Here is the input.
Amino acid sequence: MKFERPSEQDTTRILITAFVFLFVALLYLFQALQRFELVTYDSRCILKGARPADPAIVVVEISDDSVEKIGRWPWSRDWHATLIRILDELGAKAIVFDVVFSEKSDPKNDAILASAIKASGKVYLAEAVQDAAPGGQGELLKSLPEFSENARGGGHINLQPDIDGVMRRIPLVLPLSGARIPQLSFAVALDSWKADLRDVFVRHHRLEIPQGSKKISIPLDPDDNLVINWTGRWKQSFAHFSYIDVVSSYVLLKKGLAPRIPLNVFKDKICFVGTTASGLYDIRPTPLEPSYPAVGVNLTILDNLMRRQFITILGWPQNFFILFLLAALLFQILRLRSYLKAAFLTLALVFGYSIFAVLVFSFFGVWINLIYSWVLIFAIYFSVTLYNQLSIAMERTKLLKLATRDSLTGLYNVGHFKLLLKAELATISLRHEKKLSLLMADVDSFKNTNDVYGHVTGDGVLREVAIAIKNNCRALDVAARYGGEEFILMLPGANVDEAAKIAEKIRKSVNEKMFFHEKGDFRTSISLGVTRVSPHDKDIEAIVARADRALYEAKRTGKNRVVIASDSPAVDLSS
Here is the structure.
């Protein structure tokens, strides 16, 4: 390769390279591109592929077939006592319930479960730190004393998703009012290692666990959380067994018949018991799939701990050193006379470094930042056009952050909905015979639902309402979450009477839905406003306001009803 002698151009290149390096270094320090870096991490998890889960861990699922055969959840607690005795007899090493038994039930069945837990001596129970704060304030929700006092141990099941809602990390120890609450899987691992939580300490973002003359060292992220090393998709990971299959197979075995499942698989295994039935478990998006049960998160954490296969995040000194090397190498590339060679080598540098980062992650579990290195390389190369492209880049960044879908309900967000409505208005302005209607809906007394049952349950209510809306709409209808507990629907080709019928179907579907909660089962309702959109309507906000007035009238006149807006006072169709 032929290089230029040092010149004014080289000085300019050095200044540009140094400026970009400092700029990217500041971006890294303030984690400005962290959302994008998380996406690259997810891609690496997918490229790494699935790996076999620890065969010493199995999961007993409170699944749909179990609920269908045993009955509506929560079950009588003598069922859990029976499962404990069965797993004990089958030689299970530990029995971990990813369930908090915080409410009293039938005293007789509670006593049976307490007795089974005590007799087993190897039952672990989940706990939850409510309103956990950085200062260690909050409240610990535990199982009833007769259960927790007889259990081998317990730990928190608090999940802390990243800023984009995806599960990637979790605190192994939560401080609470001067105490330290281990994560449920960590509590099981500590007992397996014969280690004491009191001896565990954090130093330089590593969790140190003394074990005789040696120690176990677990790498943590900058916030001292464990980065989860995912094994694979839920159905492809761990040994899965249905709760009802375990019990019925044991009964068949005692009768001298062939069991449905091989019961010897539970010997010397750590058995997790958790809910996976529809509507019963907390769904969490992970880097590998958008719907992952919370019990699977705890299983994966235990797998990481037992196999001691962790993800290590490089600190800022190592990442700065990598950025410096990339900047120095790119500086030499850009000294070439041939722009074509420089472009080719720049792309080769990007691909080579990316492959290196994937390989290091896959084989050594080391998370090297990718997005900041990409920014550094491309920013240096395209620095000549930086000012021309800055305004475009900023606009693209804003557009990139705008998702077309609402993350909670899966419906369109309001911004995208209005774009679709604007396009439909343009269509009917040209084709006057085409019909169009608009619905506005609002969940009744939603604040009270959140206050009484909690925001997690409130989110569940919104998801179920969204499902009811989608299930009762036509294929061409467009539904969106307007904000909070409000929804908006566009019904192309529907006149106001047809729209009112659809609204009534939605109202009935929501009203008939039963929500299950440990504080008591409950129902909710929804109010809807309907308006016709004419070919002369041009103002989207005016159309929405008209539907909103009808919705307000439905609220004012008693809620749980459908009201049509018109030029005359609104008419209630559902009464």
About this structure: The first strand starts at residue 57 and ends at 62. Confidence is low (pLDDT under 50) at residues 384-393, 568-575. The first helix runs from residue 8 to 29. The chain has three domains: 8-47+316-398, 55-193+225-307, 412-572.
